[in-house]
Amino acid sequence: MFQTPAGAAEEDSCPMERVILYSLLEPRGSGKTMYGMLQRIALSQICLLYSQLLLSSSCMLTFFCFLQLLNCILRELLEVKDINKNVLPVHLNGLLQTDDRIALKEITRQLNLENVVGDKVFGSFAENLAFLLEALKKGDRSSSRPVLFILDEFDLFAHHKNQTLLYNLLDVSQSAQAPIAVIGLTCRLDVLELLEKRVKSRFSHRQIHLLSSLSFIQYLDNVRSQLSLPQDFPDTKFHDEWNDGIKTLCEDQLVVDVLQRHYSSSKDFRSLHLLLMLALSRVSASKPAIKPTDLLEASRVCMVDSKANILHGLSILELCLIIAMKHLNDIYEGEPFNFQMVHNEFKKFLQRKSHSIHNFDKPVVIKAFEHLQQLELIKSMDSSTAKIQKEYQLVKLMLDHSQIMEALQKYPQCPTDVKQWAMSAFG
């Protein structure tokens, strides 16, 4: 991660590397991030689930979060002696268990029941699952071992044929045939719409949405704390210089713009940590500080702008309409506009540069404008457009200034006049 020139003492840079990377990579829920609070909430819910698991086990939780968070919670639970002795966790992943047959084999393996199943032939999935759960019983029901099924990428299981796995797991859970519970993890908010009616009827509809309410100020504070060295760092002089440099870095406008863009794209700390680690990788003994340009370069590496990439495939006419809309945004301070205003702005440019750009007929320009709407680069602002002519329907540009300018720099053989028009203050 850090490059040390030949002859330099390696031990000088190792403490800083170790401390900062540990800070970036420390497990979620350690109490230093918002995940600590989320973990406590989810932990209380799973403790409630465990108590129900021993009774009737007719519930299911759907987490819209990350598997790592759940694993931290389970680790805490399994430290409790009674839970560790009784609960059998079974982890399934929709990316790995692509059909019910593979999933059933994985359940058998994780429950250590391969020898019990042997060469038995079962008539149906339900019969096979019932046999596995029955094999876990020791005497009466009170001594049965509860099973906790954790289904990562839960939405992918909904694409299995007839959703047999989901139906049988939820059916057993709801009917309390055996003490099991099911936890589904997914990032899809519409996951319930994927479930068949018979599956949905057996789902408890208990959901926990773990959505981030992090403000940009908190996000910026987190960057500062993650990059800062702790008070007990052995080299006091370097500690002070490094932390002062980080404070100055976080106040730089270029850095704030880069972080604002990342914050608007995703509040997930994983993407933030990737950005910071890429910037840290440029630090060395000969350059012992992070520069604003380091963060800018790291941002270009780890963040691909799909909208900017779409601009590279537009025709010159469509690109000119985007630039005309950019100027209207500057003039009217982001207020909505219509096609007629865009066309007038484009005609002004054509009158000045008629020698370099072909003069397009209005129907052709309308067709190009409609294509931009199909690509969702512009969005209609009128809720009811039935009585409004197309030319006068209000729309809004879904691109910011930086995306347009970045795309222009990479646009193949873009005419110089078009670039100059884009860079001018107003059209």
From TrEMBL:
UniProt keyword annotations, A-Z: ATP-binding, DNA replication, DNA-binding, Nucleotide-binding, Nucleus
Every Origin recognition complex subunit 4 C-terminal domain range: 221-408
Domain called ATPase AAA-type core: residue spans: 111-205
Keyword Disulfide bond: no
Gene3D superfamilies hit by this protein: P-loop containing nucleotide triphosphate hydrolases
Protein's cellular compartments: Nucleus
Biological process terms in GO annotation: DNA replication initiation
Biological role stated in the UniProt entry: Component of the origin recognition complex (ORC) that binds origins of replication.
Family, as annotated: Belongs to the ORC4 family.
Protein name: Origin recognition complex subunit 4
Organism annotation: Salmo trutta (Brown trout)
Phylogenetic classification of the source organism: Eukaryota, Metazoa, Chordata, Craniata, Vertebrata
Name of the encoding gene: ORC4
